[in-house]
Amino acid sequence: MSIDLKTTYLGLPLKHPLIMGASPLVDQLSTVRELEEVGAAAIVMHSLFEEQIIAGVEGAEAHIHSHEDAFGEATSYFTSSADYALGADIYLDRIAEIKEAVSIPVIGSLNGRTPSGWTDFAADIESAGADALELNLYFQPSESETSPDELEAEAAGIVESVCNKISIPVAVKISPFFTSVPHFVRRLEKAGAKAVVLFNRFYQPDIDIENLETCPTLRLSNSDELLLRLRWLAILRDRFSLNLSCSGGVHTAEDAIKAIMAGADTVQLVSTILRNGPLRLTTMLREMTRWLEEYEYKTIDDARGSMSYRKTPNPEAIERANYLKILQSWKP
Amino acid sequence: MKDPAYSIHDANEAVASVAYRLSETIAIYPITPSSPMAEHCDEWSNAGKRNLWQIVPEVSQMQSEGGVAGAIHGSLQAGTLSTTFTASQGLLLMIPNLYKIAGELTPFCLHVTARSLATHALSIFGDHSDVMACRQTGFALLASNSVQEAQDLAAIAHAATLKSRIPFLHFFDGFRTSHEINTYKLLTDSDLRDLIPLDAVNSFRSRGLTPDAPVLRGTAQNPDVFFQAREASNPYYDELPGIVEDTMEVFHRITGRSYQLFDYVGDPDAERVLILMGSGAETAEETSAWLNKQGEKTGVLKVRLFRPFSVKRFLQALPSTVQRIAVLDRTKEPGAIGEPLYQDILSALAEGRSDPDATAPHDPIVVGGRYGLGSKEFTPAMVKAVFDNLAAERPKNHFTVGIEDDVTHLSIPVGETLDIEPSDAIRAVFLGLGSDGTVGANKNSIKIIGSETDDYAQAYFVYDSKKSGAMTVSHLRFGPQPIRAPYLISNAGFVGCHQFSFIDRFDVLSHAGEGAVFLLNSPHGPDQIWDRLPRETQTAIFEKNIQFYVIDAYKVAREANMGNRINTIMQTCFFAISGVLPREEAILKIKSAIEKTYGKKGRPIVEKNFEAVDRSLANLYEVEIPSTGTTSVRELLPPVPSEAPDFVQRVTGVMLAGKGDLLPVSAFPPDGTWPTSTSRWEKRGIAPAIPIWDADLCIQCGKCSLVCPHAAIRAKIYPESEKDSLPSSFRSTAYRSKEVEDFLFTIQTAPEDCTGCNLCVTVCPAKDRKNPGRKAINMTPLESVIDEERENYKVFLDLPDPDTTMLKLDTKSSQLRKPLFEYSGACAGCGETPYIKLLTQLMGDRLVIANATGCSSIYGGNLPTTPYTVDANGRGPAWANSLFEDNAEFGYGIRFGIDKKADMAREFLGMLGGTLGDDRVRMLLTSPQTNDLEIRAQRERVVDLKRALIDLPDPRATALRGLADFLVKKSVWCIGGDGWAYDIGFGGLDHVLASGKNINILVLDTEVYSNTGGQASKSTPIGAVAKFTAGGKERGKKDLGLIAMSYGHIYVASVALGAKDKQTLEALAEADAYEGPSLIIAYSHCVAHGYNLNFGMDQQRKAVQSGYWPLFRYDPSKAQTGENPLQLDSGAPRIPLREYTENEVRFRMLFQSNPDRAKALHKTAEENLLRRIENYTRLAENGTQL
């Protein structure tokens, strides 16, 4: 018997809930095609970072253009396409190329820095042909004078202005570090978001004590990180009608099933694909299907949200009681 | 908005567009000033742009112009429409093939940016020396005089070559036309289609070699037939002038623009006529018209088709009234009766007179003259001078114009500046620094006016010879009439001085005309600036009735978060006050241009620039000129200090002041020999911030000094006894050393020679552990320390240099040796110069350098000043540059000669042994010279020998005295870049290495042709984007080291200073010591890699750690003791290749623009890298022989 895995996310009909999350893999057209072939239901582009675009432009000014037109024999040192390569054009062109290359939905992703950066690039991404847009709300508050409410209001304002500017559906990828995640998600929903993505992973630099330097680190996720997502998916699922997407910590079919049961509409895969290659997606999909069939689910919707806060047989485990229990049971 | 049929570019782009559209195969090689044509074609081909037949032309780079000519000859034989571009020495390298291509009647068009040939010196600038060297090849020579003509005649040449089968050399003036931006009417594809004879294309294609219809070309012919066969092509040449005329007529019908083989312009009854070719003809035509308006009867004959020379058409074009002719040649042929055009005109007139059918033959007085060599200005005043000469009772023949010849007195006098330009033309001159974006902003302004208004526009840019802190002068003209003024602006209506420091060094208002607007970027506001101006400037403001504005552009830039980029700000001010456009309209257009440039980069960048525009207007002030007259007591700073030697005062100083044009012929050495040690007199003060030493934190490693590209931060040790004489501001600390005691140590910056590149600070390993942001050297604003540091540096230089014989050979000690290469004009952060500097520190007093043309010959030998200097004994590197392609052979020859001199000295010594004493002779002949101590001892022996020889009457003793210094070891080094070593000079390099001669070769490997702007060489790595490989380099770099090692007798080292300085140091010393050929391949970071060069040494380290640049030494002498000659000096790769490549735009570009291809090439690069390392490791472990 075959199971119906059809999923709707951001108004887009998907053949199943496993989608390729934002990663550098989509930089290569060949990989994008491969991802479609192995069965990805949709692709989230890697984020267009406004900061990076600005840094690219400023870097080009400082390290390419400042050497130009200074010496008669060499009025430039790069082909005229250098600017193009460092700007946003390539990202936008890439969306169009990917749209051309694959038939699955393509979701743009944007990390802005300034109000106009958010809205203008969002419009550019829409014009480039993206089916939806994921706003990667990543900010690192370092000012002690800015209150949480101001930050949230600013973020919601950005989402609202983007939603007003473009007509494709908007998802918002948030961090878990809000005093009240449900409250903030409510603000986002009011602002026009059609989905939230739980969660983005914070960049956490390390310190080299020998050379006295701060060192960037990049660590892929593991299944442990899923637990944080499951908790909030379960809590948000019953309170909101907007879509939920789980991003971070999904490495196995079991992980995916858990996320869906907690309430995720879609599950984004990144680290496991980076580690194991695109075929991993096929394996996970097969194993997930087999499991659902084994337990005689007819549609994925039957499983979706089945372990949400309201539906789980032991909701207290999600809440404070579990916290107390675990603490008290801990022995050195 | 201008008619879209018009465009605004330089001639290089205009010509390339035509050549590209009419070609199928394009072979290229970089050479100034033609490189941009090749670059355009490569970029267009990479972008898939199609030609007239909807095919994407194939562009292929060769190893030299000789290679290009061979490749083109072949592709023409294969029957494909081919083109190429070149100039100067490149054209000379093509000559053998030009004969072949012409001899085989092959349609082909070669576009040449006419440039000087290297004689007493190299010049990258324009004249016709190169083209004139080709007039006997059988090519048709067609001259264009302007951007419009260059485009048009390019098309006519392509069409006529197909019709006639005679190949064309189409030329236009290097820089003056090739780099002049001007408004011109575009040739559309449809125009070209109507012009190009398809049947001729088809028959050309059908003549291509194919085994399906085999023929044979390139036979060898014997005396019985060669002559007749050579004459067999005559009809083609006879018909050519007619074919060109017909083509010009067709062109006229298509475009409305008319050309003749000889275009006569001027009074139809002219008595005095000037004949010339090239951009000077434009000036001559305009001046003649102006003179005729004053009532004179003059004319100008513009020669377009110089070969074949149609005597008939020439005579027809010349007005019958002509009585006197001046023929101007932009070339020099020493020893000839006259220059080529002059001789041809005389011959043509003589033929006319000999023609029995001629009814009224011309019989004018003809004089010839030279003008404009090496882009010397050719102005209306000079044209008038030539006409005036013709009007003289006895016109001077074989004259020169534009210079003062006080030696052979050939020059004719030139009067005051003659302003013949229309009154509605706007002229503007801008003085800026290369790095401040002035030229870029002016290019932008030209585009705005040229494309968005009905005005015509022209721009020409003058650069100085430095690669860092270079001054640029932009000359812009706008107006309702086409602009035909290929000379610099003298009576500008607007002068913008974008750097305040210029005001004290140059007469900035010398360019200004009456009533001009003067805009100064000044840290002093409108109320303070007047008193800050030098006397000369104040006087000029009064005399020329100048309107004066100031803006503190750097302040505005800072406030608008623009860093140091003042381009938009100064551009805004120009538009606001020059009156070139109504102010509001101009500002709107600037903003729209900003939108266009930065729109895709995001609103904030656009807004930041908008803010800069608005702030500019708010901070722009008119200065009220006081009624008191000139009050300033400030004089312009002397270009060199008064203690500089006489020659530097008289010649170098004048050149530094920007007045080299005024120097007479007698000022110059006639053979191109110049003194070294002159860069020290040029104090530029271009660094905004300089490194200041913190003695307490310093660990005395010497790395800051080692990596400094300009020898502007130095280390010294000196006896503690000096301490009392040092001023209190002078920093010193105890020298940490096991070898010497009681010495002090100082690191000192040369504040006015530092370029502020930051390399030293980045490389400094000594951090303050309490505050790791602080190091043992820290960048400090120049302004705050300049006076004190200037004094400190003087004190530092006056301290005695340590005795080199007591110094060990390690990094730290190497930096205590005086560098004999200092303050060059290399780029800030240059990766090449630290190697040269180190070489001079180790053996500068016995060093002879043969330098290949390229960056190192420019920063090493481009006037006004030269960086090679001398030690306290007056010894230092002797340096010479021959060509680009022959440097290994040139150095070989120097070695050859020096060895012979040493041999002769030894022979004479042997002969005089009885007189001089056997012991003395034996010691001189057999003493080792392996270190400084031994060399010093040998020098002392030579001094003693010379003394002993003084009184000997034997002529052999006299000879030996002249040769005795060659008994001291000399180190001969060939230095050059990868363009030389891997490509154009590889054949010679290979031969010289194979020869076994004791010659050292230092390859400063930047992996591109840096000097000409970053074109790919065979050293360019796979996956890197460079000019000529716009789509990313397909193949890996050549392993030059492995090739050299395969001989077995060559010392080979691969070094990277930033990765392992000790290994570099040892390699240089070992190469010198090795009695055979040595090759050192030195990783050199470069601005063409696209990153902040203060991380240059970090990148070198990453290159080595990733295995990209393995360090090794192959010492054949080890084999004699049974050791493995190959020693790997770097370990197995420790970091992924990507960690190295991702920091550089050259690699990143492809990952951005074509990730699939980038990834594939990167994978191959990784595989190649591993294979190479494996191979090296295997050789180092197992094999003594490769």
Detailed description of the structure:
The complex is a heterodimer of chains A (332) and B (1186). Helix content of chain A is 43%, strand content 14%. Chain A has a single domain (7-329), classed as Aldolase class I (TIM Barrel, Alpha-Beta Barrel), CATH 3.20.20.70. In chain A, strand 7 (132-136), helix 6 (148-165) and strand 8 (170-174) form a beta-alpha-beta unit. By secondary structure, chain A is of the alpha/beta class. Chain B has 1186 residues and is an alpha/beta fold. Chain B folds into 6 domains: 6-211 and 226-254, Rossmann fold (3-Layer(aba) Sandwich); 261-401, Rossmann fold (3-Layer(aba) Sandwich); 426-623, Pyruvate-ferredoxin oxidoreductase, PFOR, domain III (Pyruvate-ferredoxin Oxidoreductase, domain 3, 3-Layer(aba) Sandwich), CATH 3.40.920; 683-817, Alpha-Beta Plaits, CATH 3.30.70; 888-966, no CATH class; 1007-1181, Rossmann fold, CATH 3.40.50.970. Chain B contains 43 helices and 39 strands. Chain B is globular and about 95 Å long. Classes of the chains: A alpha/beta (332), B alpha/beta (1186). At the A-B interface, helix 2, helix 3, helix 4 and helix 5 of A face helix 2, helix 15, helix 22, helix 42 and helix 43 of B.
| CATH topology (level 3) name of the largest domain in chain B | Rossmann fold
The fraction of residues in strands of chain A falls at 5-15%
Percent strand of chain B equals 15-25%
List low-pLDDT spans of chain A.
none
Distinct helical segment count of chain A: 13
Shape call of chain B: globular
Question: End-to-end distance of chain A, in Å?
Answer: 50 Å
Q: So how many helices of chain B? A: 43
The CATH superfamily of chain A is known as Aldolase class I
Encode the helix/strand succession of chain A as letters. EEEHEEHHHEHEHEHEEEHEHEHHHH
Output the radius of gyration of chain B.
32 Å
Assign the CATH class of the largest domain in chain B. Alpha Beta
Helix-strand makeup class of chain B: alpha/beta
Q: Could you describe the largest sheet of chain B, including whether it forms a barrel? A: 9 strands, mixed
Shape label of chain A = globular
Might you state the CATH topology name of chain A? TIM Barrel
Distance N to C terminus of chain B: 68 Å
Give the mean pLDDT of chain B: 95
Q: Could you give the count of β-strands of chain B?
A: 39
